[in-house]
Specification:
Elements: E1 6-13, H1 21-29, E2 38-46, E3 62-67, H2 72-82, E4 87-90, E5 96-97, H3 101-111, E6 117-125, E7 131-133, E8 141-143, H4 145-153, E9 164-167, H5 168-173, H6 184-195, E10 198-209, H7 224-244
Parallel strand pairs: 1-2, 1-4, 2-3, 6-10
Antiparallel strand pairs: 4-9, 5-10, 6-7, 6-9, 8-10
Helix pairs in contact: 6-7
């Protein structure tokens, strides 16, 4: 029997941050996929309350676990350990997938077998219900490490890290999401770009919900000293990868 290829959607969630999970799930159920493909939704609670589980449907494709609190980056990487798919796709608990997003991710990586990852354009969902395109979305095509790093150092990173789709083997090879208190999704895009070719999809693949309760809306999230340290941690890791000259190569058994 030929195994059915799977794309694993990885979502970190915490007690109190799960009020939009039903909408995220609805956006998953509307997805179309290439022939033979299926999806699984891997949720990892950052904590052990298990209360977010009550917001989830009874669906065998939804896989939930809880663990010690360590932040979103740790939760994402714990979810990665349980992923069964050839491709992992990030999705925050308060965001949505646009229709066709998963199919576009899978097909983009199939068309470009040497690419390890891709990221799609974003739509911001404002509190008044308006959808606004991301201001810095680059054009479709290759995304170079050099351009992404330059944009990051200029504080105008052009893509949304939580819209990353990457080959699972690549994400595991680079250690998953960094254990940082913030910026972990952006950092993973940069790390993947440092060791593997990537692609930009200009069709929006996700809706980034802006609301008063999101983590990035809290003043403590933007603590200047911590941000300086986190930026240094990301840049030093990138420098080490570049000096090592290690490059990821596709595994021959991966589904393309």
């Amino acid at each position: 029997m030929v195994a059915v290829p799977v794309i694993s959607i990885i979502t970190p969630v915490y007690d109190g941050g799960h009020q939009y999970l039903s909408e995220a799930y609805a956006s998953l159920t509307r997805q179309t996929l290439p022939a033979r493909w299926s999806w699984e939704w891997v949720l990892q609670e950052d904590g052990r309350s298990r209360r977010p589980l009550g917001a989830l449907p009874d669906d065998q494709r939804v896989r939930y676990a809880a663990g010690k609190r360590g932040g979103a980056g740790v939760a994402r990487t714990l979810g990665l350990a349980r992923a069964r798919g050839a491709i992992v796709r990030a999705l925050d608990a308060d965001d949505l997938l646009t229709d066709g997003a998963l199919q576009r991710d899978i097909e983009e990586l199939a068309r470009h077998p040497s690419a390890g990852w891709c990221v799609s354009g974003a739509l911001d969902l404002l509190p008044d219900g308006r959808l606004v395109a991301g201001p810095y979305d680059p054009p479709a095509g290759p995304l170079s490490y050099e351009s992404l790093r330059e944009a990051y150092e200029a504080d105008r990173f052009p893509v949304v890290g939580t819209h990353l789709a990457a080959r699972t083997d690549l994400v595991r090879a680079v250690g998953g999401w960094p254990a940082l208190p913030a910026l972990e999704a952006l950092a993973l895009v940069l790390v993947c770009a440092a060791v593997a070719p990537g692609r930009m999809l200009d069709t929006p693949g996700g809706v980034y919900r802006k609301h008063g309760e999101q983590t990035t809306a809290h003043p403590e999230y933007w603590h200047e000293a911590e941000f300086s340290t986190m930026r240094a941690a990301i840049l030093s890791r990138l420098d080490s990868l570049q000096r090592s000259q290690w490059r990821w190569t596709p595994h021959p058994s991966e589904d393309h």
